[in-house]
Amino acid sequence: MNKLLKLMSFWPPFFASGIKVKIVGDNQDEFLVSMPLRFYNKNYVGTHYGGSLYSMCDPFYMLILMEKLGREYLVWDKAASIQFKKPGKGKVTAHFKISDFEVTKIRQKVETEGKWEPSFTIEVKDQEDEIVALVDKKLWVKKKTENS
User: Fold this and answer.
1) What is the pLDDT of residue 4?
2) What is the pLDDT of residue 5?
3) Which 3 state secondary structure label does DSSP give 51?
């Protein structure tokens, strides 16, 4: 996964928007994602394009959970929404982490329920540490079977 994450900044949707991915966790399970405001990721009124704000938040909770749960689990994105709080100007960042406690809870729910749909909310913040947008991500988690 380390190699994949190092290349994420060059993935076309990220590269085209100027999105940068930095691994900040010792276990490669914590990420700081940033995006500067540039002419190519501005909207009509000169602030961050909403699609780019969402794009910078899209894959990380799924990737972290896939890595922490291991290959015996299926993890998929189920749903997402974004709520804009203020215009995004300058550099924006989002910090992604799933605690070991949360992973344990998810494992327990999958064991008792057969599947689980955990939700996570990420704050996209500007350079003044003010919230620009809230992105809600719902995942779908199930233990693999012989047929999956």
Assistant:
1) 66
2) 65
3) helix
CA of residue 59 relative to chain centroid, distance: 5
* Domain boundaries, given as residue ranges, for the chain: 2-143
Q: Strand, helix or coil at 5? A: helix
| Token pair in block for residue 46 | 């000169």
Give the number of residues written for the chain: 148
20 to 16, 34, 99: CA distances (angstroms): 11, 5, 23
Contact 61, 99 (CB under 8 A): no
**Phi/psi of residue 68, nearest 5 degrees:** -70, -35
SS3 133: strand
Q: Measured between alpha carbons, how far is residue 35 from residues 24, 39, 96, 138 in Å?
A: 16, 12, 14, 23
Token couple for 10: 């060059």
How many of the other CB atoms lie within 10 Å of CB of 14? 21
Consecutive sets of 10 residues in the chain, 148 residues long: mean pLDDT of each? Answer: 68 84 78 93 93 92 93 96 96 96 96 97 97 98 84
pLDDT at 135: 98
Architecture of the domain spanning 2-143: Roll (3.10)
